[in-house]
Design a protein that fits this description.
By secondary structure, the protein is mainly β. It has one domain. It is built from no helices and seven strands. The radius of gyration is 13 Å and the shape is globular.
Amino acid sequence: MLGLLNGKYKTVGAAIEPLGDATITIFTDKNALPGDQFLPGDQFLPGDQFLPGDQFLPGDQFTLGNNKAQLVSRKRGQMVVRVQ
């Protein structure tokens, strides 16, 4: 998944684990990626996954890695979740 992490986190091996109250914006559509984050010709890693965000509603809770998260908002191309 591609996204932005705002808040505190720790690294565990090669993984990043967000800590409580971190906010994560998950991009659900490659066309909705913010243009100021990438340059023309940038390549994504093979196997990049985009999670279909239309299956979740604000307030839904789910597991994200080893953490519980709650969907705060959803709009075209992105979901915003808060780690609990």
